[in-house]
Design brief:
Layout: H1 4-19, H2 22-38, H3 44-48, H4 56-70, H5 81-96, H6 98-110, H7 118-124, H8 129-171, H9 177-196
Subcellular location: Endomembrane system
Protein name: DnaJ-domain-containing protein
Signal peptide: 1-19
Amino acid sequence: MKLLLPCLLLAVLVACVAAWTKEDHEIFDLVSAVESSEGKRTTFYSWLGVPPTASTSEIAKAYRKKSIQIHPDKNPNDKKAHERFARLGVVAAILRSPEGRERYDFFYKNGVPRWRGTGYYYSRFRPGLGAVLVFLTILTSGLQYLVQSVNYKRDLGRIESIVSQARSAAWGTKLVPSEGRKKVRTLIAIRRARRET
């Protein structure tokens, strides 16, 4: 019963991670790029200037109109004109494709997920040798510290056990250590007295 909840949670996470396809990741990238270049909350439809219910011919017409406006030849002073023009072509291709439009409409209505799976982030951030070495150094140092602290506590417990066993063997279990020291001093004094006589 205790294992049921973690297994169920793991199954849900695996299903969520496996749900996003390569095309979905491309849409995520494109949504982020459009929002960063055209402004927050800019959608593919609002950028083309068409409603979400627009037909394929209306989308093609809006694409031609918008591509003329942002064409790099018409905007020679805009350094990002080439990127915007290429991005517009990809947006129009997604909206003209029935499958691509269906996938985009799903994310348009439900929102782009914040967690997009480990594959999505790993494909965008691949750590170099230095980052891996730093991570491994920190990890091994932390593990070494943990092991040393556990061993230190275990050794202290073992030493206390040995000391208490030695005290009980030397002075008996009922003697307090201060009384035991007096007894040992008395025994030493008696032995010295015998040697002298």
